[in-house]
Amino acid sequence: MYLEEGINIQQVSFMSRLKKVWSEIKYWFFILLFLGLLFEMVASMMLYRKYTTGKLAILHFTKELFKNDDAHATSNFTYEPWMMFRIADYHSQRINVNGFERNSSPAQFINSSSKDTVDIYFFGGSSMFGVSLADAETIPSQFVKIVQKNNSVKSIRVRNFGVPHYYSKQELVLLSSLIFSGNKPDIAVFLDGMEDFYSGRMLYYDRPYYSYALQQAFDGKMFQKGGARFIDTTAQLSELPAGIDPSEYNDDLYSKFVANLKNLSMLCDRAGVKSYFFCQPVPFYKYSARDAALQGDFSRFNSIYPMLEKNADSIRNFFFLGNMLQNENAAAFANGLNYSPAFSEKIAAALYDTLKTDLQ
Questions:
Q1: Which of 150, 148, 147, 153 is nearest to 115 (CA)?
Q2: Which CA distances in Å does 159 have to 100, 133, 135, 167?
């Protein structure tokens, strides 16, 4: 009997402890829930008035807490007079940006027997900037390594002025600004094609990537949809404008692109700068391993690129690299649109093959 009573006493004691633990769990659950709701209310009042609506503020802060800062750096833009925008200054072990210039590593090759040091400026969009790449993996950095490997006669210094979303017209304005401020290279290298034709409306309407967003501010449309924010229209830049025949659109893009290269060539001639223009490989032209996630109609590359290749000899200092992806695999791109380190090295090698006579 005593044994049975002992068992019953133990069972009662266990159930009592279990109820106590459960009570504490419920208590802290409701405390945490209350604090979470309170945080969401305060954060929403602070965040939504400044940035956006449509999602929980706590999710925004969680995302900011665990975000990849280096990935964020390549999409963090700041206002720039005349040019409209550029990548904001940023410094880390992998990525360093100061003004319009992305650091190159190495940035120079010095031959002790060389009497001359050739300054080479590189221009382009995301591919030249090196989105998804470290400083040492960008095309200008790879170019210096190739020059070192080949033991160039002349010393060189490189500067990377690639800016994501810049196309040939903005490169013309940027080079003009650099020259007028006293920053004149010996050689200017331009790698274009993706930005000019992927977001074709920029080239077609002769306007920068974020011009539509700024236009909303002047048109009084900044506060549409209940928030103090711009309405993102950049996705429309890759679409065919309404009421325009596709073949005429492609012809106009080709003509405008060639005209920009001609103006760049004229500017370089007047400033005493030797210029080289390269049409870059893109995943939409002769590339069997194209990322299936790249949605949209980009058949215009199959119209424009053959014209550029056919007429390459008639465009001064122009070199067509659009066929380089013909026998490449998926490793050519890091994320569908941006080159991998290995393919950036191949691009740099192709540029060197063209420029090497200037370095002997």
A1: 153
A2: 10, 16, 12, 18
